Amino acid sequence: MSGDEVPLDEKARRMRDLLSSFYGPDPSMSPNPPSKFAPFDAINSNSFNADHYLNLLIHKSSLEGLLQRHVGMAAEIKNLDTDLQMLVYENYNKFISATDAIKRMNSNIMGMESNMEQLLEKFIYDLPARLGKCIKSEAYADAVRFYTGAMPIFKAYGDSSFQDCKRASEEAIAIIIKNLQGKLFSDSESIQARAEAAMLLKQLDFPVDSLKEKLFEKLEQSLGDLQLKDEDISRCLLMSNDPSKLENHPESVAATVHEASVQEFVEAVRAYRVIFPDSDKQLIKLAQELVTKNFETGEQYGKKRIRAADLLAVLRMIWKEVLQMDEVLHESVLSEFSLEAVQITVKHHVASRFSHLLHDISDALAKVYVGQKEGMEEFPLQVALGASKKAVLQGSMDILLDFRQLLDDDLELLVKLRESILNWVQEGFQDFFRELHGRFLLLSGRNNSSSQVHGVAEGTQGDRILASLVLVLAQLSVFIEQTAIQRITEANKPPFIFMLEIAASFAGGGIRLYENGPAFVPGEICRSFRSAGEKLLHHYINLRNQRISVLLRKRFTTPNWVKHKEPREVHMFVDLLLQELEAIEKEVKQVLPQGLLRRHQRNDSNGSTNSSRSNPLREGKLSRTNTQKARSQLLETHLAKLFKQKVEIFTKVECTQESVITTIVKFSLKSLQEFVRHQTFNRSGFQQIQLDIQYLRTPLKEAAENEAAIDFLIDEVSVAAAERCLDPIPLEQPILDKLIQAKLTKSLSQSAVSS
Q1: How far apart are CA 611 and CA 605, in angstroms?
Q2: Model confidence over 390-403: pLDDT tens digits?
Q3: What are phi and psi of 497, to 5 degrees?
Q4: Number of H helices and number of E strands within the chain?
Q5: What confidence score (pLDDT) does residue 413 get?
Q6: Which of 26, 107, 342, 431 has the fewest Cβ atoms surrounding its Cβ within 10 A?
Q7: What is the 3-state secondary structure (H, E, C) of 147-207?
């Protein structure tokens, strides 16, 4: 059999036996000891007998077979020598590398042994004592570091060489765990200290997940200490206005404490994210709650009477805290969340500034009550009107300058809100003037809430104050319509640079729309206050005439005119009427401007001051003693009335002193005429009316600007009294003059005594 035909398994077995014979293993250590009954041709067997094998082969084989066996064995020997040589060459480098590795391992093991000896001497056996010192000094972080460093040794040798050391260390660690749990739930500990305690417990393989709910409950409770407080805002404003004042100032302590608390919260959030990887949602919720509450505090502060600079300082402080928390909670998007909150804060601040301006105007108008009730001012209405004008105009200008700071500031949140702030300012002005218009109606008693005004000012003095206030409101409405709106919207004078932008938006093409209509329409505001001024002026006139009507009603309803006695003097109601008109004149001159002087004098073409129908009454026919002749006189008077040139009685009321006073006098005389028409007089009653009216003629003509109209109305009263008289015989002129002169003398003497 040739060598090429040897099976692969047989060849591998022979190679293995060859290597075994080369390295010379101990036969006794062989797992398969040689058998005594091995075949005769088992050349690789230890019991192989070469002579026996050769004799047997010669005996059984032919010459040709012996030659073939010779050639085959020679080839096998050659192949085995080649394989053995290649095997030695291939493994030589591996033998060299293995030798070098063994040498390095030997040197490393020797160094490790020395280090192990040093560790055993200086650390392991000293660990319990070190842990005890850490417990006393509360250096729990060092204790945990020491213990976790020794854990690999305890795991390997804790049950043999270091059993006692391990037991003592575990007892110390149990104390540390208990103390850390105490710190974890202690209200006196800071947020950061609690977070550190939780982190150390987790390093000690303590099941902190079971404490998660309580930990987050404590963290949520701590938000109350982190919220902005009054002292924090005071410190912020003090520092923004003058940082040098914070040195050794109590507010600086509050500043340090608050900033440290916020930083502790940030570090706690950072630690909790490591301790509880699935706690992001809860941490984001807590951070948003803190930001919301701080912005709510800022919102409430912004509603106070503060400057925009003060609000900016508070917003900057809150924004700084937002950025700190945003560093550890990127997923919370606190910056976008804060944009909505600061939008509400600034919008409410803008609205509150207009609300405070409205209160300032109301306070200025309240001087009407204070000045007249307490007599503090010589001209209380003039003072109240001036203060109100200043409050409207200067207050509006101050608001615009204040809002300019919000627009010019580079705070990221406000830059995004610039367009919105412009809209809010316009809406604020529109709503402000609308509400001011409603407030005027409320104070004047022209709406359903007039009882509120009368509740403040009751009685005679209160009625007078209310009428005075209505007069001030009327003139203030004129001022707003003619001056204030124009000054607010013109914006072409420095330093009101910001108003250029507002004015551009106020212009017709730049009006911004909002949910209730155009943001600001100056023309609409002017029209509303023009109408309000006219209505309030008429309301003032009506209020004054109502008071005069009350006086006239008492005069004409009290006596029995059919049984009236002969007149001895001018009746006292004339004094009361003149006093009332004098008070009206004093009010009007404090508030309203003077008009163009145009007294209507009658010329010859229009008749003298004593009309054609009054001359007969005074000169001839009133001296007749016959009743029938007196009645004929009335017929002549009515006939004269048909041919008399028409006198303009009631004209449009202008917002001037003369126009208002004249109108009130006219209405008073018309009221007097109506009260006369509702009575029936005897001769003495008629003569009393004649005396009183004649005495009133001169002062009424002096007070009013239209003498012709006053003469006409006085004559109307005289005619009405004559028509309602049973025996209309007038006083003789000398007697009439004498009684009037006596009244004038008495009035002068009383004035001298009072002065």
Answers
A1: 11
A2: 999 999 888 888 88
A3: -65, -40
A4: 29, 2
A5: 83
A6: 26
A7: HHHHHHHHHHHCCCCCHHHHHHHHHHHHHHHHHHHHHHCCCCCCHHHHHHHHHHHHHCCCC
Cβ-in-10-Å burial (0-12, 13-18, 19+) of 340 comes to: exposed
Query: CB of 679 within 8 A of CB of 688?
Result: no
Please say whether the beta carbons of 169 and 127 come within 8 A: yes
List, as one string, the DSSP characters of 256-311.
Answer: HHHHHHHHHHHHHHHHHHHH-TT-HHHHHHHHHHHHHHHHHHHHHHHTSS--HHHH
User: Do 689 and 721 contact (CB within 8 A), yes or no?
Assistant: yes
CB atoms closer than 10 angstroms to residue 68:
14
The pTM assigned to this predicted structure is: 0.63
Encoded tokens for 644? 């008399």
- For helices 459-479 and 522-557, the axis angle rounded to 10 degrees is 150
Place of tokens 């004035």: 751
d(CA 686, CA 676): 10
The whole-angstrom separation of Cα 586 and Cα 657 is 10
Instruction: Classify residue 70 as exposed, middle or buried by CB count within 10 Å of its CB (0-12, 13-18, 19+).
Output: exposed
Question: Which residues fall within 8 angstroms of residue 457, CB to CB, at 6 or more apart?
Answer: 369, 463, 465, 466
418-443: b (≥16 Cβ within 10 Å) or e: eeebbbbbbbbbbbbbeebbebbbbb
Q: How confident is the model at residue 597 (pLDDT cuts 50, 70, 90)?
A: low
Least confident segment among 34-48, 494-508, 704-718: 494-508
Q: Is the peptide bond before 518 cis (omega within 30 degrees of 0)?
A: no
Beta bridge partners of 513: 518
- CA contacts within 13 A on the Cβ side of 43: 8
Which alpha helices (DSSP H) does 521-571 contain, by range? 522-557
Give how far the C-alpha of residue 476 lies from the chain's centroid of Cα atoms, to the nearest Å. Answer: 31
Cα–Cα distance for residue pair 499/488, rounded to 1 Å: 8
- What six digits make up the tokens of 200? 């150390």
Helix (H) or strand (E) holding 514: strand 513-514
Q: Is the dihedral of CA 323, 325, 326, 328 positive or negative?
A: positive
The torsion of the CA quartet 383, 384, 385, 387, rounded to 10 degrees, works out to 80
**C-beta separation of 649 from 663 below 8 A:** no
Encoded tokens for 667 = 């209405």
Chain CA centroid to CA 325, Å = 22
DSSP state of 512: P
3-class secondary structure, 681: strand
User: 40 near 53, Cβ under 8 Å?
Assistant: yes
Tell me, rounded to whole angstroms, the distance of Cα 142 from its chain centroid: 48
SS3 letters for 49-63? CHHHHHHHHHHHCCH
Q: How far is 573 from 743, CA to CA, in rounded Å? A: 13
pLDDT tens, residue by residue, 579-592: 999 999 999 999 99
